[in-house]
Design a protein that fits this description.
Elements (H helix, E strand, L loop, with lengths): L3 E9 L2 E8 L9 H11 L2 H7 L10 E5 L8 E6 L9 H13 L9 E8 L2 E8 L7 E5 L4 E11 L3 E9 L3 E6 L12 H18 L13 E7 L10 E7 L3 E2 L5 H13 L8 E5 L5 E12 L2 E21 L14
Parallel strand pairs: 2-3, 4-5, 10-11, 12-14
Antiparallel strand pairs: 1-2, 1-16, 3-4, 5-6, 6-7, 7-16, 8-9, 9-10, 11-12, 12-13, 14-15, 15-16
């Protein structure tokens, strides 16, 4: 029985992060992926309790901190959303970087503090600005990212054949120009973009086998990203919107999505190492991305990308369950 759960509330570019600080037991398992599987299979009531109404909403996002099993990690995290548990989340990394400093999980250093966060996809190193007058700025270097498929066609009932790229940046995304659907990232209604993205995601899942070469648990499509067709370089930001899980709309530019976009641009040789690109979300928030290093995720040539943005606090909460409440376990309207 859930009695009381405490949280710290944050957002990055408008995308919420509900950090669970007390009230949820540490899930069983030796590794982070085992703990994630335990939450999914044996303790999913906590996700529904916090992500769903009446305490959350369809686009809520959460993070449960657990002891790391990676020897270099300061902390480990299980991400959660309206459908389940994701493998990577850039906006959450930015928020958790600040949280780790402010709540004593790591020792604050002058100018910039390193926070090493173990995610289901691997170890992610965040750098939190601690200079006087700088608030909320965090950057992190991604796990190795790669282009999984370039120029892949999928058949949709509503729009016919659609050409997409599929990239991995800690999670797999289908990526295409919104204009292919007669839509505009910053001008079309969010529900229209979400509906079209859902069609693309469904087609990819049905027609393309997605596997991660090193970890089977990472091998699935997380969402679809519509872009404005630009790359984000040469001083001109590129707008995009990410629709993931059960038509959940990311308010931020999406850290793992931007990483995927950069990996695809690198595979196409459209950007070079050290080049900084800018990505804008539907809220007007901006993330920057910079190619850092080359890597190999056999059989793929990969890159690491440094993503930077800002995270902010929005409150704290205690959530309770009253006996006899028939909706207290959580519900969603679709």
């Amino acid at each position: 029985m859930i009695s009381s759960i405490q949280t710290i509330e944050m957002h990055t570019g408008g995308e919420p992060l509900r950090i669970i600080t007390d009230g949820v037991p540490v899930p069983e398992g030796r590794t982070l992926l085992e703990k994630r599987a335990y939450m999914r299979d044996k303790a999913d009531q906590y996700r529904r309790f916090l992500m769903f109404e009446p305490r959350g909403h369809k686009d809520m996002y959460g993070a449960l901190l657990v002891p790391p099993d990676h020897p270099e990690a300061d902390l480990a995290v299980i991400f959660m959303h309206n459908e389940g548990y994701s493998t990577m989340c850039g906006h959450a990394i930015m928020a958790l970087g600040r949280y780790a400093l402010d709540f004593g999980l790591v020792v604050k250093e002058a100018n910039e503090t390193t926070v090493r966060i173990q995610c289901p996809c691997g170890l992610v190193t965040a750098k939190v600005e601690t200079r006087e007058g700088v608030t909320g700025q965090v950057r992190f270097e991604s796990v190795p990212a790669f282009a999984y498929k370039l120029g892949q066609f999928v058949e949709t009932r509503e729009y016919g054949p659609v050409e997409v790229d599929i990239g991995y940046g800690g999670a797999f995304y289908g990526i295409l120009n919104a204009a292919s659907f007669g839509l505009n990232v910053l001008q079309s209604k969010a529900r229209d973009l979400a509906a079209a993205a859902s069609i693309v995601s469904t087609a990819i899942k049905e027609q393309i086998d997605i596997t991660h070469p090193e970890e089977p648990d990472l091998g699935y499509l997380y969402g679809t990203i519509f872009t404005d067709g630009n790359i984000g370089n040469e001083g001109k930001s590129s707008a995009n919107i990410c629709v993931f899980a059960d038509e959940q709309i990311d308010r931020s530019p999406t850290g793992s999505g931007v990483t995927s976009r950069m990996a695809i641009a690198a595979a196409r040789k459209a950007i070079t190492p050290g080049e900084i690109c800018q990505f804008e979300s539907v809220t007007g928030a901006v993330f920057t991305g910079e190619l850092k290093n080359t890597a190999k995720v056999d059989p793929f040539n990969a890159v690491t990308v440094e993503i930077a943005g800002h995270a902010y606090y929005s409150g704290s909460a205690e959530f309770t369950f009253e006996d006899g409440d028939p909706l207290g376990g959580g519900f969603l309207l679709k």
